[in-house]
Amino acid sequence: MNREKNSFAFVILAIFLGNFIAQLNSGTVNVALPSIMHDLHSDINSVQWIITGFLLAIGTIAPVSGYLGNKAGNKRLYVSALVGLTIFSALCCISWNIGSLIAFRILQGMCSGLIQVSTMTIIYQSVQKEKQAMAVSLWTISIMVAPAIGPTIGGLITSYWGWKTLFLSNVPIGIIAVLCAVIFLPGRRESKAIQLDKTGLITVVIGNVSLLMYFTKGASLGWLSLPALGILFLGIGGIAGFIWRELSAKEPLLNIRVLKYPKYALGTICSCLISIGLYSSVFLIPLFMEEAQGQTSFTVGLVMLPGALMMIVVTMITGRLQAKIDPAWFALLGAVLLSAATWEFSHLTKVSSAAFVTVWMIVRYIGVGLAMSPVTGIAMSVIPKEYVGHASAISNWLRQAVSALSIAIFSSILAVRTEAHLSKLSSSKIGEDLKQSAFLFASNDTFLVATIVLIMTIPLALILKKRKAKPLMETMNQGS
């Protein structure tokens, strides 16, 4: 009976459900932002914290997840995080203003961060090596399918029952996920004699929050004003202090020395860049269609659905083929498709049809499905088993922190360029036409920036194909 419970299928089921609920509101909330702005009397700079706060919390908690997993055990950590996520989802339903909703979303994000890292660690500690590529593909689907199909679900729920129901829908799924995790996941005895690196934790939190604050508030404060520069230097100093601390501590919060493996380092960078591309569309397309074209939340959701379904299929096929074909080729093709689709989104017009957006969203999601799982597999394949928890935490921290920063930067670019286009177009357009036109051109400008970022993944994918999985120190020793 125990062998049956701990089998591959049941372990993946327990992991899939948890990751699904952890990411569900990442996609559903995006299409509800205009409704939340209206109901809670907020603006775009404030309401974007519903997303960036969530992502920042994931990135901030990721560094401490390795310590917690070693201290309490990854199964116990996973179950506790699931319980917390379910509770905070219910609390989001009773939010009375934008501040309370953001606070509960941040707490949601902290639980989500623990879930993502602990489940990746469980895969590499509990699944047989020959099945790990497929397990990682299914894990990737579980963290991407929810934000991908989220806009469709979110559009439907928001249109008929309101945005608070989005959070309420997490509760029954959360309860089921907790039960599956308790029953099916194998327990492991973990080391107890470890100390929390408090200095590392403090410096990484200061660095993450300060950098996000700079890119969020920089436009209003003035990018080169003394307060803004002070926040920027505090963020840079916090991250620098964190790196120094982790390299010198006997028991670091994160063993960042795993970055000495070239394939892991390059794969993590690729993963971060792909995440930027993914979140740029998930964040910008709903705003473009609703604000510049006047579409409904439900229409936006329908436009996003076909691409999401294609991504699921492509990710599963990619997972099966990785044993026969070098995964770097999938990453390269995915990077090219992502870049091409994002470039097309930098040429949107008021009359761009839903079919046009749908087709290029399909191309984008196929690119994500091709690239994300192979990149993750390449990165983690060179990590010794005893360092998997740290490597998983570092990858998740960087990916989520970069995603949060990218949304903050995209929001700032969108706001700044909207104001610039409002001034430029004010002599020829008035009223709602002026606002929609300015927002449209600003969206195109922002997608152009996202395109430049994604193009950087193409040469990185080529490097992943050529490099050997040896530590940098070993390579240097051979050269000498």
Description:
This protein is mostly helical. Helix content is 82%, strand content 0%. It has helices spanning 2-5, 8-39, 44-47, 49-72, 74-92, 98-126, 132-161, 164-168, 170-184, 198-221, 226-248, 262-292, 297-321, 327-345, 354-381, 388-425, 431-455, 457-466, 472-479. Helix 14 (327-345) runs antiparallel to helix 15 and helix 14 (327-345) runs antiparallel to helix 17 (431-455). The longest helix is centred in the C-terminal third of the chain and has 38 residues, at 388-425. It starts with a helix and ends with a helix. Mean pLDDT is 80; it is low at 467-480.
Compile the SSE list and pairings.
Layout: H1 2-5, H2 8-39, H3 44-47, H4 49-72, H5 74-92, H6 98-126, H7 132-161, H8 164-168, H9 170-184, H10 198-221, H11 226-248, H12 262-292, H13 297-321, H14 327-345, H15 354-381, H16 388-425, H17 431-455, H18 457-466, H19 472-479
